[in-house]
Amino acid sequence: MDKTYTKEEKRGRIRGIVGAASGNLVEWFDFYIYVVFVAYFTKALTAPDMDSGTQAIYVWGVFAASFFMRPIGSWVFGQIADKNGRKKSMVISICLMAVSSFLFAALPTYEQVEMAAPFLLLLVRLLQGLSVGGEYGAVATYMSELGLKGQRGFFASFQYVTLSGGQLLASLLGVIMLAFLSEQQLLDGGWRIPFVIGGIAAIISLLARSRLEETLSSEDIYKEESGSLSELFKNHWKTFLLVVGYTSAGSLTFYVITVYSKTYLTNMGVDSKTVGFIMTASLFIFMLAQPVFGAISDRIGRRAAMLAFSGTMAIFIYPVMVIWMPHFSYSPLMVALLLIFLMMLLSFYTSISGLVKAEMFPPHVRALGVGFSYAVGNAIFGGSAPSVALQFKAAGIESTFFLYVIVMLVICFLCSFKLPKEPEYLKHDH
Questions:
Q1: Neighbouring residues of 207: CB distance < 8 A, sequence distance ≥ 6
Q2: Do residues 298 and 152 make contact, with C-beta atoms less than 8 angstroms apart?
Q3: Domain 9-214+227-417, CATH homologous superfamily name and number
């Protein structure tokens, strides 16, 4: 570690990173419960006269719709984070997630309220999207600002350690509940339990976040242009477009590999319990890999890491997903190894996802710039991935979907060339 820090300064910064990361874990756990238990609440919350394909498209459409709330969430919470401090923004976002999780658990079924049920499902999911939209920018900014000089890649990687950890815990909860409850019990209302657990976890996280130290200076708080969307687009629009460019491919690939692959493997004929084990094991390894790849980025630079991600992923995603996985579908071990291989390539991006954005914006619009660019890329390309993939599948051209992913990765590769070899911001300790 850098010798300019006192032991107390190091401990204080690490405590802050842990506090922010723990809340991030809960936020994403609550968000991904939807993905893990979607098969069990689909019939309860949609019209019984729908065929299974239409029901699937609707619930994954709701999943995609929640992403369109992220730009709004990032704008609202980005303003709060840049004007009133990162801590306040993170506290409010976790409160909103707690409320929306409890509301999800209490959703009435289609049998009880008919067409109001799918509408209420959409409404509550939009609230979760608003919360997560606000979460990303504030947490990425906070952890990047607290990260020790020369090791920011390593420390910032814990944002995705906890993000993937949230996915992992959601997946693990699915495995545990299948061990104690039958599929019929989950269909009959057992799917509500995870959302109650998520709401309780969010309340506990709120207590941890209330003790965080603020990183935004009083000088930046009092700037008139702090957290201003007009300031972002007037003076930093080129940076914003660049960040959206490489975020779009990163988000799309992330959701294909960590979310849609679950549906993809099931459609290949892999048993649902086996898929649960594969996803849990793969996500665990993916989570552990983040600090390693974050440390690598500290050595090779963010630009090189982004080029490595986009270049290698563009080469391998089609043969792995379209050729090798179906070929080895009989072997859970081979499927898991192929999935882990893609996750390692993805880690070049995810480990520095927040940091590579934070280093592009000045402090007074950093949370807004990071969060809004991420949210826009996610809304258009990331969250839509499962729904778009299912549309390709319904048309009988599922493999073509991965060509679309490759095109986005090529765009990301070109955008990565525009990244500076040395960051303009957060280069020196603040």
A1: none
A2: yes
A3: MFS general substrate transporter like domains (1.20.1250.20)
Distance in angstroms (rounded) separating the CA atoms of residues 196 and 318: 39
Q: How many Cβ atoms are within 10 Å of 43's Cβ, its own excluded?
A: 17
Tokens of 257: 């590999």
Q: What is the pLDDT of residues 233-282, one digit of tens each?
A: 999 999 999 999 999 999 999 989 988 998 899 989 898 889 988 988 99
Longest CA span, the chain: 67
- Higher confidence at residue 51 or residue 371? 371
Contacts 24+ apart (CB under 8 A), 397-404: 399/318, 399/322, 402/317, 402/318, 402/321, 402/322, 403/318
For position 427, what pLDDT does the model report? Answer: 66
Would you tell me how many other CB atoms lie within 10 Å of the CB of residue 408? Answer: 22
Using CA atoms, how far apart are residues 52 and 59, in angstroms rounded to an integer? 11
Identify the three-state secondary structure at position 410: helix
- 110-147 confidence digits (pLDDT tens): 889 888 998 999 999 999 989 988 888 888 888 888 87
Residue 171's alpha-carbon distances to 113, 117, 132, 273, 427, in angstroms, are 30, 25, 19, 11, 37
Lookup: tokens for 317:
């995603």
The domain segmentation of the chain, as residue ranges, is 9-214+227-417
What does the alpha-carbon distance between residue 140 and residue 118 come to, in Å, rounded to a whole number? 33
* CA gap 402, 395 in Å, rounded: 14
DSSP letters, 226-255, are TT-HHHHHHHSHHHHHHHHHHHHHHHHHHH
Q: Is the pLDDT of residue 423 over 80?
A: no
3-state SS class at 428: coil
- The residue among 170, 210, 192 whose CA lies nearest residue 23 is 210
If residue 192 lies in a helix (H) or strand (E), which one and from where to where? helix 192-209
